[in-house]
# Entry
Amino acid sequence: MKKILTAILILITFTTFAQTEAPLIPMKDFFRNPEKRSFQISPDGEYLAWMQPWKTRMNVHIQKIGEDEIVRVTNATERDLAGYFWKGDNRIVYFQDSKGDENYRLYAVNKDGSNPKDLTPFEKVRVGIVDPLEEIPDQMLIQLNKRDARIFDVYRINVDTGEMEMVAENPGNITGWMTDHDGKLRIATTTDGVNTGILYRESEADEFKELVTTNFKETLQPLFFTFDNKNLYMASNIGRDKTAIVEYDIAKKKEAKVLYEHPEVDVTNLIYSKKRKVLIGVSYQTWKTEYDIWDKEWKEIYNDLQSKLKGLEIAATSITKNEDKFLVRTYSDKSLGAYYLYDIKSKELKHLIDVSPWLKEDYMAEMKPIKYTTRDGLTINGYLTLPKGVEPKNLPVVVHPHGGPWYRDGWGFNPIVQFLANRGYAVLQMNFRGSTGYGKEFWQSSFKQWGKKMQDDITDGVKWLIDQGIADPERIGIFGGSYGGYATLAGLTFTPDLYACGVDYVGVSNIFSWMNAIPPYWEPYREMIYEMVGDPVADSLLLYEASPIFHVDKIKAPLFIAQGANDPRVPKAESDQMVEALQKRGIEVPYMVKDNEGHGFRNEENRFDLYGAMEKFFYKHLGGRMAEVSSEEYNK
# Structure
């Protein structure tokens, strides 16, 4: 009966549509830089920082609340900043790599633009934050793979001068570090390739000792210490399928109690108040992000915000040290939303800016959650976005599998999806087996299934869409990035009659060469990758069968490939091989390479080039809609 009701609901949903087709929106409006984004409030609540374009690159700007003057404090011209945060009330710390190589450097600058400093001026070295040490204005704990490219040591760094000293040397097997609430380094996670260990020490004067070891197939992830610094809050699926939030008794080396679990999805995000030292609640993803708030004060705040921002999803993004003001970000499937400043005492909510006001929600399409059953009986969750104002029948379709592959698609505004829907395509996204968040069994069912059951899940989603009458079986394309790029190549190779065309964006074509070229800091996980994907020696036949490069003779549909020249995760050689193999067969494959990009195109002009070319490619092979261009432009 439940299945019948679900089918009826789906049928009702898909047969109800607006009568007015959305106007064609310029491609650049979907992929241009926002006016302002990534707002953060200073710890003292006196200043706002945000990113906005300068010379087409996203740079940090500062403004005192209540004043008009804006100060730009960074000068990136080659590439957008990768991220930033306040360090104390006066200093901004930010990250930047070079041409997409992901060897991030750490920089700092005062809020007035003075004393700019390259804190980690090292070539081919990657930095990460261990603890920003919020109580110590001029110091942080960072990790660097400066001594050995494969592993990260911990350093204490002065953010004003750049002076640093090593405080923990990695013996070779540590993959992560964690401090307690006093900023003391007391937890380390390790791997031997397939087993994950947690090391613990009572104080920084003590040696690390083993607390617990599990197989990597199980999750036991330290989140943070209890507020007395004696026990740990962990995300754990030990003895259960879905990951739950638990308290772990360090002295007894066992789980003390379960704080929260959900019957359908993993829960890994525990929220707390640093000032009041209380747990606030949890957030998790079903078909969209949900919250369970336990703390009375924050429950009242959340209810007040919901009453003021009806119909919108909300998230707190930055809070003052006194926890009296914070920034709120709204979003939906049809909008990148807005930023607001909220005063907890007065309950005043001040609108700061709409992120992309040029995109009108009335013209955007609705992203609807869907479910379907695979050929072997597995339930797959996903999303279907139908073009606005068009009867959902015999539509051209773009299948859009996510990257990772151990990741998941979620509900919210996706410029790629909205762009494709505006061009008349139904867009199908699915969380195929291996996608995270659906439990241990679902994740492990993807092991050694690249190009096999994982690909079947995508194929079964396409067939489900055809059976619903929504998809025109002659006009189905596939597009994805990273693992989604691999899935595109696999789709065209292993189901050549299913797709009319495909776009591979930084995708793996040859699993053997991809494994041989993994970044050095992935080296500790090599054996884990072998267990999850396949061993190049023991499973050589499996990987040969799953690598599209060895089966290009099966490809019938047109293929377009896009690649960053400096990609450390999926090297350019992966795309070069595929292009060369197709050219040897006398097949011309459009190939876009950007010399200043890595694993995906961050720079605005490169996004314009990619999605402009993709628009023409899909229009030519799927027959959706396309913005008017001259014949000369179209034939480029």
